[in-house]
């Protein structure tokens, strides 16, 4: 009898141990390793509805629906994603359930949020998974304003360079047809991104439909990959370009803040107009800084001219000297404050812009050419937006902000996101004087024809750029801008910044300028950004009064370009 009881106890112990082991294995594979097992493309259960969370929606700042899931019995998990605005394709990206085709854009960056794999939602979904009931994801609200997004996308496409090679019938500045480029619209005081356009784009709904239902699922993707215009490149954050003379703004801010220059500093012909030959040294090759942007004998008839005049008319030689007067290490310190050659803290990945050589150094020849935008500077549109925002926000740089809040399926707020300051770049006085210089550019200098011909409802200020790329290709066309600006009210700061560019578009002002000026007009006329509008600054009155147009005997001569 004792032997039987002992055998029963041993057998019971074995069964208990086996039960615990099997239970542990089940918990391990069904809970701990469930996501990895489910995500394996070869798992036949991967597309069962209880293994595919009902993905959260993506909204704009005002609750306009931008991305959501729709029932589709022929799709993995029983749902496919739908997108309401193709101009946001590069930003939001696309998502296809099943794991065969990786998501891109925000759909990839915030996959854990949208699929409910984080926070309390993840705990709730663990219960759903054990019970084999439907899992749900969280919603994301962007800082994007869909109304402004549509304006920017439309105006960018409508006001393209003149295919004849001249921007306006009476202005013989070369422009070249191109639809490649980007635009970034921000609130400089919060860092909130209100609109972003990457051109050309693609159709995210066609992408999802093809990957889900086509017998050749990658056909549309392959077509886009082979397209020489590279529509899958998200140009605002991943495109890298020569910034041209927009980069003079970096040097102007450094010069004003450090005391190396003032707007009224006078420059003689030698230092403002004549080529600057820099000899070779042991540490640097020789170089010669050239660039007759002043138009001597056509727009400029006497010297000296001041820094404001040189910035307005994009004087390369003057700004090479200003950079040298700031000093290389101090100038580099200002670029670091604006996150050049660093990873920019942001809600989405941004390619690093740089002013340094590929080896991480910077010789003197490249430095003086960097100072006016034609050295080894290589930048994203988002990086130039940070430069623009620094001037607009009185010298304080805010973190680029794209996510405003996350909510659950019942629209309860899971997480709010607040504006964050990144750095104090320059003093408020230096920032204001930079805006005064930008007003001189847009009212009297290299962009004055844009202001004259497109008369916005308020004063728009900015800096033009025509980034030479070599190889016989037309230059990159840039403008960094902000509005409104009131020359009579230093306390009023611009409410909005717009940075836009076209690849190989030619003359900066005339390739991209008309599109930007129409963006401001449409945004302010539709009251999409509520702010007091300073009156339009008439060049024909302002420029002669402020000595920003020179005269000769006879009729007045207007400012350069």
From TrEMBL:
A Pfam short name: Transpeptidase
Species for this entry: Dictyobacter aurantiacus
Gene Ontology CC, one term: plasma membrane
Compositional bias per record (Gly residues), positions renumbered to this chain: 464-473
Segments of this protein annotated with the region Disordered: 453-474
InterPro entries reported in the protein's UniProt record: Beta-lactam/transpept, Beta-lactam/transpept-like, PBPA_dimer, PCN-bd_Tpept
Family matches, as SUPFAM superfamilies: beta-lactamase/transpeptidase-like
One of the record's GO molecular function terms: penicillin binding
Residue ranges annotated for the Penicillin-binding protein transpeptidase domain, each copy included: 181-499
PANTHER family: PENICILLIN-BINDING PROTEIN 4B, PEPTIDOGLYCAN D,D-TRANSPEPTIDASE
Protein name: Penicillin-binding protein
């Amino acid at each position: 009898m004792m032997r039987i009881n002992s055998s029963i106890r041993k057998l019971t112990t074995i069964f208990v141990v086996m039960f615990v082991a099997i239970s542990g294995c089940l918990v391990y594979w069904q809970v701990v390793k469930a996501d990895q097992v489910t995500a394996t493309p070869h798992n036949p259960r991967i597309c069962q509805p209880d293994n595919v969370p009902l993905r959260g929606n993506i909204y704009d700042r005002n609750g306009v629906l931008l991305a959501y899931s729709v029932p589709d019995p022929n799709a993995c998990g029983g749902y496919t994603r739908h997108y309401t605005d193709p101009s946001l394709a590069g930003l939001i990206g696309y998502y296809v359930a099943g794991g065969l085709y990786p998501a891109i854009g925000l759909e990839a960056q915030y996959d854990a949020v949208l699929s409910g794999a984080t926070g309390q939602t993840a705990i709730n979904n663990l219960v759903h998974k054990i019970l084999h009931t439907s899992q749900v994801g969280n919603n994301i609200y962007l800082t994007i304003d869909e109304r402004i997004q549509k304006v920017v996308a439309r105006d960018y496409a409508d006001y393209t360079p003149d295919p004849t090679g001249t921007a306006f019938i009476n202005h013989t500045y070369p422009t070249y047809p191109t639809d490649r480029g980007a635009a970034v619209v921000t609130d400089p005081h919060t860092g909130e991104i209100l609109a972003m356009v990457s051109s050309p784009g693609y159709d995210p709904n066609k992408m999802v439909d093809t990957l889900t239902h086509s017998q050749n699922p990658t056909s549309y993707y392959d077509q886009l990959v082979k397209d020489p215009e590279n529509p899958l490149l998200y140009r605002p954050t991943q495109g890298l370009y020569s910034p041209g003379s927009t980069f003079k703004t970096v040097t102007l801010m450094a010069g004003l803040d450090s005391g190396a220059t003032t707007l009224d500093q006078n420059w003689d012909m030698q230092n403002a107009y004549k080529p600057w030959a820099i000899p070779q040294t042991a540490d640097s090759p020789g170089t010669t800084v050239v660039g007759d942007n002043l138009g001597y004998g056509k727009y400029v008839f006497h010297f000296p001219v001041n820094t404001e005049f040189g910035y307005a008319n994009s004087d390369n030689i003057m700004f090479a000297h200003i950079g040298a007067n700031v000093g290389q290490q101090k100038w580099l310190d200002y670029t670091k404050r604006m996150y050049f050659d660093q990873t920019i803290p942001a809600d989405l990945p941004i390619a690093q812009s740089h002013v340094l050589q590929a080896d991480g150094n910077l010789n003197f020849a490249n430095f003086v050419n960097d100072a006016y935008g034609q050295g080894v500077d290589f930048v994203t549109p988002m990086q130039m937006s940070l430069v623009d925002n620094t001037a607009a926000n009185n010298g304080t740089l805010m973190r680029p902000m794209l996510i405003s809040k996350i909510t659950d399926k019942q629209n309860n707020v899971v997480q709010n996101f607040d504006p964050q300051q990144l750095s104090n770049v320059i003093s408020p006085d230096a920032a204001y004087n930079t805006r005064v210089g930008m007003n001189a550019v847009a009212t009297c200098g290299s962009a004055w024809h844009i202001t004259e011909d497109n008369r916005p409802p308020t004063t728009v200020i900015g800096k033009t750029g025509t980034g030479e790329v070599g190889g016989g290709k037309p230059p990159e066309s840039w403008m960094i801008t902000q509005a409104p600006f009131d020359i009579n009210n230093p306390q009023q700061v611009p409410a909005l910044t717009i940075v836009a560019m076209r690849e190989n578009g030619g003359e900066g002002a005339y390739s991209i300028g008309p599109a930007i000026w129409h963006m401001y007009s449409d945004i302010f006329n539709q009251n999409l950004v509520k702010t007091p509008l300073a009156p339009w600054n008439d060049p024909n009155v302002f420029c002669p009064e402020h000595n920003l147009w020179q005269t000769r005997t006879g009729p007045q001569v207007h400012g350069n370009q």
